[in-house]
Amino acid sequence: xxxxxxxxxxxxxxxxxxxxxxxTHKYDLQGQLIEASFFDAQDQLTLxxxxxxxxxxxxxxxxxxxxxxxxxxxxxxxxxxNGYANNHVCLDDRGYRIEQAHFDEHGQPTLHLDGNAxxxxxxxxxxxxxxxxxxxxxxxxLAQGSTDTRGxxxx
Length: 155
Known about the structure:
This protein is mainly beta. The protein has one domain (about 1-140). Helices cover about 5% and strands about 30% of the residues. It has 2 helices and 10 strands; from the N terminus they run ββββββββααββ. The chain has an 8-stranded antiparallel sheet with strand order 1-2-3-4-5-6-7-8, with helices on one face. It has a two-stranded antiparallel sheet with strand order 9-10. A hairpin with a 5-residue loop joins strand 4 and strand 5 (about 65-70).
């Protein structure tokens, strides 16, 4: 774990422009950032820009991001400025992203700030990651792209 504290000349904690005095970062064995926490001068969790106090990430064996969740001051998931509390990424066998889906603080599908709840990259694999009902109910008429020679979606 890495900890960084912002101090004044007298070694007292000072707030940054983001209203935090300290942050901690935890990394996995591959060096991927898996958790970030933000603290005030009293060493209590504090909200940073974006509206969260902690951010946790999960990666697959290849080092690809598969999930990220944002947490508030009480340790519960919290919806951040981009519109979601949790983001799931599904990858195919080759490590290409085939779908990205966004969920609110209650685990329900929600819209990203850019207006989508799900970003399917493959018409054949998307249903195996998340329920097609989510896409049908929240994104009716979503256009499907074609696949390039590597199997990646060309939107």
